[in-house]
Every structure is written in structure tokens, then in C-alpha cells.
Write a structure and sequence with these properties.
Number of strands: 0
CATH superfamily: Hemerythrin-like
Radius of gyration: 16 Å
Number of domains: 1
CATH class: Mainly Alpha
Helix content: over 70%
CATH architecture: Up-down Bundle
CATH topology: Four Helix Bundle (Hemerythrin (Met), subunit A)
Number of helices: 5
Largest sheet: none
Bound molecules: fe (ii) ion
Structural class: mainly alpha
Length: 152
């Protein structure tokens, strides 16, 4: 079942919400590719999803560091574990195993859980600094630098 974007997933940090929404989009695209039984497309969406996830994590971690969030390190560790888990699935897919359905279930559950629990936790704690960082729209500010650095 497709993931529906709801208010519950909204951090109200625009850049983060846009990125999360795009991740949800990729997961839904993956579901579409599985339904079509299009193995090549599954592989392609999976590659794009992994790529985008890495960019999002790097951006988010950099934001947390910039904001001085005290749980940045454990948050990074959670991201890292997830990346490893997905890489294992990706290897299996590339080896010809049929893991797409299983992966899809894991991705949906993980992402929703992570946003609602771990990501929401930093929003509550560092909202003030994040607002200042995000609202600083001057050229060469942290936000434009980081978006340019992490997203192609
Ligand atoms: Fe996160
Ligand atoms: Fe996130």
C-alpha cells in the first residue's frame, strides 16, 4: 500500500519536509515497479532511492551539527545502520534474489518510524537554531551551501 504524506510526518522545516516527501515518493515508485514486475525498473528506482537517501542523511546530519543538537551522533548511527541494511538488500537484488517486496515493507516501516520518532525528536529540541539557520537566506549561507553540496 502506498505511503500517504500526512501532517504527522511534517517537521515544518521546509527543506527537510521536501526531502522526506521525495523519499516517500521513491518508495511509492518502488511499489509501482514491483507491481509491474519490472526488475530493471526496481533496480533503477532502488539506486535512485539509495542515492537520494544518502544526500538527505548528509544534509540532515549537517543541519543537526550546525544546530548543535546533542543527539547528532546517535542519530547518525541510526542512519548508518539503515544504509548498511539497505545496501545488503541491494546486493541481494543485484545477485538476482527476489527481495523487492520484503525491502519495500522494511523501507516504508523504517522511514515512517524514523521520521515520527528520531527526526521529530530533533525538531522539538533544536527548533530555535534550525529556524535561524533555515531563515538565513543570504547568499553563501549554510542552507544554500549544504543544498549545493549534498544534492546534485
Ligand atoms: Fe534522520
Ligand atoms: Fe530525515
Amino acid at each position: 500500500m502506498a505511503i500517504i504524506w500526512t501532517r504527522e510526518l511534517c517537521t515544518e522545516i521546509d527543506e527537510i519536509d521536501q526531502q522526506h516527501e521525495r523519499l516517500v515518493d521513491y518508495i511509492n515508485q518502488l511499489e509501482g515497479a514491483i507491481k509491474q514486475q519490472n526488475r530493471a525498473l526496481v533496480g533503477q528506482v532502488l539506486d535512485e532511492l539509495v542515492d537520494y537517501t544518502l544526500s538527505h542523511f548528509a544534509f540532515e546530519e549537517s543541519l543537526l551539527e550546525e544546530a548543535g543538537y546533542k543527539l547528532t551522533k546517535p542519530h547518525k548511527a541510526v542512519h548508518e545502520m539503515f544504509v548498511k541494511r539497505v545496501a545488503k538488500y541491494q546486493d541481494k537484488h543485484n545477485d538476482g534474489e527476489n527481495i523487492a517486496e520484503q525491502l519495500l515493507g522494511m523501507l516504508g516501516t523504517w522511514l515512517i518510524h524514523h521520521i515520527k520518532r528520531d527526526d521529530m525528536a530533533y525538531v522539538a529540541e533544536v527548533r530555535g537554531s534550525i529556524c535561524a539557520i533555515v531563515e538565513d537566506r543570504k547568499e553563501g549561507n549554510w542552507l544554500s551551501r549544504s543544498l549545493g553540496q549534498f544534492f546534485r
